[in-house]
Structure formats: C-alpha cells, structure tokens
Task: structure prediction
Amino acid sequence: MIKDQDFLKAKAAYCLDVAKKIGASNASVIIGHSISETVNFRNNNLDESNRSDGLAFSIDTYIGKKKSSISSSNLLDENLNKLITKCYETTKITPEDEFNSLPDKNLLADSLKNLNIYDDTHIENDKKIDYLKELESTASKDKKIVNTESSFTEKKSNFILANSDGFCSGYKTSSFTASCVAVAKDEKSMERDYEYSSKRYLDDIKDPQSLGKIASDQTIRKLSPKKIGSEKLSVIFDKRIAKGMLSVFASAISSSAIARGTSFLKDQLNEQIFSNSINIIDKPDIIKGLGSKNFDSEGVKSETLNLVKEGVLKSYLVDSYNGRKLNLKSNGRSGGTTNLYFENGNQSYDELLKINSKCIYITETIGHGSNLVTGDYSVGATGFLVEGGEFKYPINEITIAGNFKDMFKKIFLANDLEFDYSTNSPTMMIEGMTVAGK
Amino acid sequence: MSNFFNKSDLERKDAENIVSDTLKNCDDGELYLEDSKSESIVLDDNKIKSSNYSSDLGFGLRAVSDEVVAYSYSNEISKDSLKSSAESIHSTLKSIKGTYNNEIPKSNKKFYNDINPIEQKTLNSKLEVLNKVNEYLRKKGGAVKQVTANFLGEHKSIEIIRSGGEAITDIRPLIRFNVSVILEKDGRKETGVYGIGGRQSYDDYLQNDNWKSVCEEAFRIASVNLESKPAPAGEMKVVLGPGWPAILIHEAIGHGLEGDFNRKKTSAFHNLMGQKVASEGVTIVDDGTIDNRRGSLTIDDEGTPTERTVLIENGILKNFMQDRLNARLMKTRSTGSGRRENYRHVVLPRMRNTMMLSGKQTQDEMIKSVDKGIFAVSFGGGQVDITSGKFVFNCTEAYEIINGKIGSPIKGATLIGDGPSILKEVSMVGNDMMLDPGIGTCGKAGQGVPVGVAQPSILIDRMTVGGTKL
Result:
C-alpha cells in the first residue's frame, strides 16, 4: 500500500523539527513514497517481473543565506537525526549566497485543485499478463517480426513538501504504462521500432491490439532502408520527435540557463524567436495530464504560462533562486515545465507532407547533438523519403543539422496535436536543413 | 564493511533462510544488499552553488528460472520487507522446476582499495580547490564568461547472499572532478569541458596542483572552438585521436557484443561469432581488472570476479560479454560482466573498460594519407541502435584535414556509422594507445554505470560527418 498523507506529514514535521532544534534558520523537506510493479514479456512469454517499493527524503537546511542539502532512502528516525545534523554542519561551512532562501510566502500554493491525476485502481500482475499476451500476439503476427518485448507498469506515488514557513502539502499520483518494442528482419536488414501508451487512469490505456499493431507496422515499414545523398532539404518531424524541440526550447529558457548567460535564447525576451504563427503554452491544470501539478518543487503555485505568443518569447521558466538573480518573480517552474505544448498549426498532416515536392520524414533521432549554448544542432536520424506527399522508402545512417535560432523561425505545424505525453507537439516541418548521407 | 543486519529486526540467518527458500526451485538468483554514500559539490557562476550528500540503503531479491527473472527491491531492510519481496517473487514464478547453480568462481585479487573518498578530504579543502579553479580561470581575462567545477564522490558497499548462505562482498570508491568553462569572443560563446577520475581518493588525482592542468585543458578546448568553422556534411575519411574517442568502439561494437542482445538475436552481431568483423590488426578487449580505473570491478554485481575478455582478436569475433543468466542460456560462462546501477535494478551484461589495443602506425602517417577528411580529438556522448547497428557520437573538438595537413577547427558535429561494418573500414591502427581520463558513464535500459575506454589513433576510411556545410 502506498503510504498515506498522515505518515508522510508526520515524517516531514519530524525533520523540520530536528532541523530547527539544532539551529537551522530555515528548512525545506520532501518526503516521497512510490510503489511500482512491472511485468515484461518477450516473444509471447513472461520474461521478467519487477516490484519496487521506495521511500525517499531530501532536506535543504539554511543558516541565513547559507544552504546545503541531503537526501536518503532511509527514513528511520536515528538515520534522519544523523543526516540532518550532518547537513547542518555542512551548511555552516558553505559560503553565503545572497539569493538563497525559501520561496516568497505569497507565491506559495494555498489550495489544491482536483486534477484527476490519481487512479486508485490496482491491476494484478495476472491481468497485466493477459494484456501483454494479447498485445504480443498481435505484434508478432507478421512473419517479418522476429522479436517482441513488451511491458506493463503500474506506478503509484505520494509525497509531502513542507517548509519552515508553514507550507505543507502534497498529493498522490498514478501512472499506467504499456509499451512494445518490435524487431523485424528481412534479407537485407534488421530494424527496431516501438509504441507506448502512458496514462494517469488505467481505463485510458490504449487497447492491446492497437498498440501491438502500431508497433509491428512501424517496425516493418523501416525494413531495407537506403542511405540518401547529402543536400539541403525540408525535414518533417514525427510528433514523437517534434516534442523534443519543445524540450530544447524549455531548457534554453530556464531561468538558470538565462542567469548563467549560457543559453542561445539569452536576451530574447519579447523578441520574435519563432514565426508569428507559433504559440507555446505550459498548462499545469490539464485534467488527467501527465505533467499536471498544483505547485512546483518549492511549493510555488504553478499557473498557465503563454511562453510564446505569435512567435514572441513572453516568459522564462523561473524558480525562486534564479528569479532573484534576474529580478523576476518565480512562476512556479522550479523543476521544469508541466504540460508543455505547441498550439495547432493551420494545415493538415497531409497538406504538410505535400508542401515540398521532396522532403524527409524523421521518426527517430539518435545522439546528444543539441548545444544549448550556441544553438547548434546535429543528430543521427532514421525515417522516410517523401515525394509528392507519398512515403517512398525508409532511410537511415544520415544526419540532420542546423542551428535552433534559425530552425525555430522556420517551424511549420500541422493541426494534429494530441496529449499523449507531458510535452506535446503537432507534426512539424522545418525547411532547409542540412542532411548528410552519402 | 557495512553490516546490513545490525540495525533491523532482520538477522543474517533469517535472510539466508528466506533467500534459500525463495530460490529453491530456481536456476539462479541472489539477495543483493547495498549501502551507498555520495556527494556532489558544485561551484558555478562564482559561487558554491550546491553541496549535496546522499545516503542510500536497500536490497534487491532476484530469482531466475529459465529465461524468466523475478525481481523485487525495497529500501527498507527488515524481515517484513524481505518477506513481502519473496512473496511477490513467488506469485510470478509459480510452477518452476529448476536446479540452483551453486558454482561461482573465486578470486583474491582486488583492483582498488577499501577507502571512503568522501571522508578522506574535508569539505573545506574541497571548497578551497573549487574556489581556486574559479579564480585561476577568471584571471585569464574577459573572454571567460562562466566557470563550473565540481566534485562527485561515491562510496558503495555491497553484499551478495546466494542460496545456501554464501556471501560475497565488495567496497567500491569512485570519484570525479570536472571543470567546464564558457568563453565569449565577438558575441560568440563556446564551451570547453574536461574531467578526471577513478577509484582512488580525490588527492591521488589532484596532487601537484593537477587541477590546473584540468583547467588548462577545458580552457584550451573552448579556445579552439571559438575559432571553429561550420563542419562539412557527407561521407569522408576520419582520423580519431587516442583515448576518449574510443567511445566509438563502445557504441559501435561494445553494446552489440553484450550477451543479452545476442541471446535474443536482436544484435546485428548475433550470427557473426568466429567471423571477420574488423580489419586485420584490430584487437578489442573488455577489461575489468585494471587497477583503480573507473570501469574496473573486483567482482561484478552477481559476485563473479571480473576478467579481461577478448572480444575481437585480429579482426575475428571471439567472445560476447556475459552475465550468469545469458551465459547459462547461451551455454557459456559468465565473463564477470553482470552489472546494475544500484539495488533498484536487475543485472544486465555491461561493459567495463573497453579497449582497442595498439597497432604499428603513427598518427602522423594517418593524417598525411588523408586528402579530405576530419581529425576528431574529443567527443561529447554517443548512442547506438543495437538492431540496425547504426551509431552516432558528437565531436567536441575536431579539425578539418586538407591534403594531408590539419586545418581549421570545425564546429561540433555528429558522426554516424554502421557498427558491424565500421571496423572493416579501419585502415590504420596507431601505436599510441591511451586510456580515457576516467569520466565515462554508460546508459542502458535506464541504468547508468561507470565505464572506461581506451584506443590508439585510428584511421577510418569512410564515415558520414553531420555538419552543415555541403
């Protein structure tokens, strides 16, 4: 059973009490508990079961403007006493930093919305096995599929965040995730692809047959890929890759990157960084949203942010520490974005594919080729050659490269936005990228 | 050595009984206990940004029957907790009839000392080094826009209890020291990063003011990058420098030679054992036994002593890297390659220190032989698609080669290649093998483990460079 609020609150209060008693001027503590159960299948048979049950605690202690932190998984009182004392001793010799302190009291979340992000339903491992059997039998139907690996995970979490200014709040969350990775083979090649479905509520998970079918189809269509020549081309990013552009954007407008002066989007507030058709929103209160939350990791209330309006950057993602450095108020984004998305574009998916007589459609990228300081981008890519709006053949062993400052201005979006992840994008096209192949 | 049984109601005898009972009809499995302490001290933006300490304690109980693994972990070491893990495992493995394999090789060799690096250096002296790094680099002038330096230290104590009560222990120190500097010139910013580390104390790596040479190297890389031009795009010859660029070997070849992918036949190498997969003169080993290296282990996380495993000998594929489960199913022996990030994770076959051994040529000969290509000296990270064999890595320091001479530095670009064929494109192997500075972390199935790499300079006849200049 997941530990209840009372248990976590009592532990949090205990920690704050210990910190206060030994002399900390302030403290902030997070106590969390999560249980997750996973069943893995491989080639229609049970492969692995995995159960995890984990408590976690972390505390920041302050002495004036000095701060230090400690975390542990051992919540026995004796251990907490020892660690909090160690944390306090470390704080004493840590230099002062004028920007260190608890978040402003008037920004703290004062009430909780019901976001429907906790489903109490428990799915027994036997039922997970039934789901995976059905999934894998669909996924492995085609003879070209030589291996399937699937999993079903149920996760329940609860947490309490408390600080010495009197903030004390937390709530339960749940997630159910089913996934399938398939491997297909023909005379010339072996390819892998996947599909997954992750939801807050068990009933919302994609049905096993559709999930298995999509994984299988997506894998088979990658067989016998070709390498294309090097040239400038328009690149279409499948939704599951397009959302990565938003993650890069979010990292580049985090107040820490801005305050350190190490972001390619520094000094761009109120500047046109996308074309004027682009709007980016971070909305924390989507019902059942995978990124939904009431407050950030400091307890600051999170409200909807229109980060980009008609292409103009309107706001950074601000936490308390970096906010003070930049003379900005925290907007409840310590720990990052919530449900981040591009608003829909004007054209349909089919129209987007037809804009150029020749382009490439990317379904997967590999490598860590995003440089947030310079904005340079270069990654390995796999996908399809598209001519006249038609998928011609699969392609791989190519790279795509550009610079985000330039790429952002050339983003076109389709109107097929769905909320499958915590960060979501419609299908995206960027014109004139450098494709390197043969 | 941690005593996992003195602070709970769980006694060693109880634990042994539960383990033996749980694994009765299983082929393999164990109770893995872990007590780890770690610290991270960061200087950034002219200040000590954070000093974090973390202590983690827990166990993982694993039962293996044929191909099926049942795993349950908890960070509460108690009788109840271990019993509920055992029950969870029983519910997965209902009707099984295996015979427990009691055999596990023994060795008295140790590849690092039982030290606690966190306690061996006071916080004050660590802070002092970080502040000196900041002052030293900031003194270099106005181009220095940002300096980040950090210490990462870890002390991990593990115990493996097998069915029948056999216990195997290990204590693993690990440290890293990193410096990152950002320079700005004419509105352009570039980063340089360098780090060192391994399984010794901080001071073993920092003696004779060695932090200065780490600073100099980070500064040098950033300075080079400030002068860099757009990288070329397309297929060309690539000369790789010695040492850290061996992450190419790690990505392109290493992962594909891990036992699990080959047992499941999802690796591009699964049907190539005994065949020629590399040019003559190419020999690659995975070695867990080099003293104090980041990727070295006295025993792996199943209790098997590590070894030096020859993967490719003179171009011929000789061995895969195995843990006990994959070894048993592939009818071979464990190579001591079973690793896990911590008690929260199952064991997987993983790399340790992956090395290409020296050949006869010089780096000079390689450069001279190239009309048009690039010379890659340092990399960020890499990644591989095991199934298609395609791999990438990102240059952080590279130069163009024109008519046999090293030219201008070029901007960071991704290089992409095909694992099973890339080693056949190696046309020269240098005589200058070098180990990396001790900074690698390998990710697989969501688990990060420390690894090392090494190689001499090599010439690859054909690779695709992912620049922007056509």
Notes: The mean pLDDT of chain A is 96.
